[in-house]
Structure formats: structure tokens, C-alpha cells
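Title: Comparing notes on inverse folding

I've been comparing how different people in this forum approach sequence design from structure. To keep things fair, I'm posting one structure and asking everyone to reply with a full sequence. Here's the target:
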């Protein structure tokens, strides 16, 4: 677009006045009086201080000795610590090896003790079983021995009974032995015997002899043949077959070392 140049109106020209630029000095002064957060003028700028170069002084002999001594002590402590740790590790390893050896030894001893204990337990069990089997055999042997002895006595009594029933001399001998052990002053006698033996004795001595000696024959069915029991006013003697067999049997047991009668066990 082209520029249009028009002549200034004279009226406006007359009214025109000279306009002075505003002064900024006061504004700048007020602005310069303001401070920042560091309480420094806003126009202040940070300037790094000049670096001071520290003067290095040479070490004295005393300081050198102190450094050397400090280094020696530090090295000694370090060596002592390392030596202690090394010794601890070596000792730990040695102790571990020794512990393993001792533990193995103790384990073997413990195992051996357990084995021996187990063997002893088995031995006791076997011994108990053996005793359990052997005891009945022992009891059987004792029972058989007892029965045999009782049987022998019964057989002997049977034989004696048969003999006494056929041989009157056995009964007469018993009466004679019984009278001998009685006191002489006894004047009255009672003879208890088997009924069959009463007839035999009466026939042998006769009634007249019986009356003269004041003998009284009494039947006792509980008595065995071949023996009797003689009773006086003050005494009594048993010459029965049962008693004489018992005496013989007890003598036999004593000779065999047996104290108890198996018939009463």
C-alpha cells in the first residue's frame, strides 16, 4: 500500500505541545533499593571467592616418626586380626576333624554296645524258651517218679496183704512185738484187729489162755489183716500193717534222699 502524505492541520498544530520523556531515575532508584531472597540488592551477582592456595609445609622428623609408628601399629593390628582369624579357622577345621574322629569312635562304641545288648536279650529269650520246654519235662519226670513210688508201695502193701492173709505167723509176730513194748504192770489188754484175724488168734491161743492173760479180742473192719492195735488202761501200741509199711517206706525215702512223702504231695 502506498504511503499517503497529508499536510498537518494548522489548528492541530497550534494545539500541539512539547511532550517531555518521563524521568526513569526515580524508578531506577526504587528498583535498586529492592533486595533478593539473600537480602542482597537485586543488581548483586554472585562472584566466587578467590581460591586460597594452602602452603604445604615439609614434614618434620617427629611427624615422620609418628606416621611410621602409626603405620606399624595399624599393620600389627591387621596382622594380629588376620592371624587370629586364620588360627580360628585352622583350629575349627582341626576341631571338626577331631570331632568327626571322636564322634565316629563313639558311634562305633555305641553301636557295639547296642549289638551286645541285643545279643544278650536274644540269649535270654532263647534261654527262656529252653527253660519253658525243659520245665514240663522235669515236671513229667517228677510226676512219673512220684507215681512209680506210689505204685511200688501199693504193690508192696498188696503183696503183704496177700502174705498176711495166708501166713498167720505175721500177725502172731506183731502181737508178740506189741506186748513186749508195753509196761509189765499192765494187766488188761484189748486187741483190735480184722474180724478174720480175731478168729485166727482165738483158735491159736484158745479161750482159756485168753482168759488167763485177760486178753480181749475186738473186731475192727477198718484194720488190715496181719496187724493189730493193742490198748491197755494207760498205754497203746500200733502194730498194724499200715504203720509198719509206713515206717519201712519212710526209711526207704530217707535212704534215697527224699524228705517228702509223694503220696501226701
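Reply #1:
Here's my take.
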Amino acid at each position: 500500500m502506498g504511503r499517503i502524505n497529508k499536510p498537518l492541520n494548522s489548528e492541530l498544530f497550534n494545539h500541539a505541545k512539547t511532550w517531555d520523556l518521563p524521568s526513569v531515575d526515580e524508578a531506577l532508584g526504587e528498583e535498586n533499593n529492592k533486595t533478593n531472597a539473600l537480602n542482597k540488592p537485586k543488581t548483586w551477582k554472585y562472584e566466587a571467592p578467590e581460591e586460597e592456595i594452602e602452603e604445604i609445609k615439609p614434614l618434620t622428623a617427629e611427624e615422620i616418626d609418628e606416621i611410621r609408628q602409626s603405620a606399624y601399629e595399624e599393620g600389627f593390628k591387621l596382622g594380629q586380626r588376620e592371624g587370629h582369624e586364620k588360627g580360628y579357622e585352622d583350629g575349627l577345621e582341626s576341631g571338626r576333624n577331631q570331632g568327626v574322629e571322636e564322634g565316629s569312635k563313639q558311634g562305633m562304641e555305641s553301636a557295639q554296645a547296642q549289638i551286645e545288648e541285643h545279643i544278650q536279650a536274644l540269649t535270654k529269650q532263647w534261654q527262656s524258651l529252653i527253660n519253658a520246654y525243659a520245665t514240663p519235662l522235669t515236671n513229667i519226670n517228677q510226676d512219673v517218679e512220684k507215681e512209680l513210688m506210689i505204685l511200688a508201695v501199693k504193690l508192696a502193701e498188696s503183696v503183704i496183704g496177700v502174705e498176711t492173709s495166708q501166713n498167720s505167723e505175721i500177725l502172731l509176730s506183731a502181737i508178740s512185738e506189741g506186748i513186749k513194748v508195753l509196761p509189765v504192770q499192765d494187766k488188761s489188754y484189748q486187741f483190735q484187729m480184722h474180724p478174720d484175724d480175731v478168729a485166727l488168734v482165738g483158735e491159736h491161743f484158745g479161750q482159756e489162755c485168753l482168759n488167763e492173760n485177760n486178753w480181749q479180742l475186738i473186731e475192727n473192719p477198718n484194720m488190715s489183716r496181719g496187724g493189730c492195735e493193742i490198748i491197755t488202761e494207760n498205754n497203746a501200741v500200733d502194730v498194724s500193717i499200715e504203720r509198719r509199711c509206713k515206717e519201712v517206706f519212710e526209711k526207704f525215702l530217707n535212704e534215697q534222699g527224699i524228705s517228702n512223702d509223694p503220696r501226701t504231695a
